[in-house]
Target: HTH cro/C1-type domain-containing protein
Amino acid sequence: MAVGDLQKTVGRNLRTYRLQRGLSQEAFADLLGVHRTYMGGIERGERNLTLKSLERIAEQIGVDPRELMTPRD
Amino acid sequence: MAVGDLQKTVGRNLRTYRLQRGLSQEAFADLLGVHRTYMGGIERGERNLTLKSLERIAEQIGVDPRELMTPRD
Model:
């Protein structure tokens, strides 16, 4: 695993979560109380999130932060 | 789970890892290529680590970053 993979996995999982609920990036960003462009950066795996930011997001959507860090299929 | 718990869990797990190997904070910091005071802050759960920093540390000690985030008994 290379450094940076974790934020990419988190981004992909958040995107999957959002799409499964049929939400736009904007609606999802609103839901999480963050800016749409910031959320876009997270989904693309470009944001080097802190543990606290990850915790806040995970808490707001009711998932375990470690689950967001786990690659799917 | 409250925001900030994750960094406390990571800190506790790193301290356990270090003590199990009989390393001083200084030796452990050297091993990880970080400063001793920075490492002390991480162990005390005071550092809001980024995912990349967590990945680097986990990689250097050969553990899964998610394992470092998992509370032990």
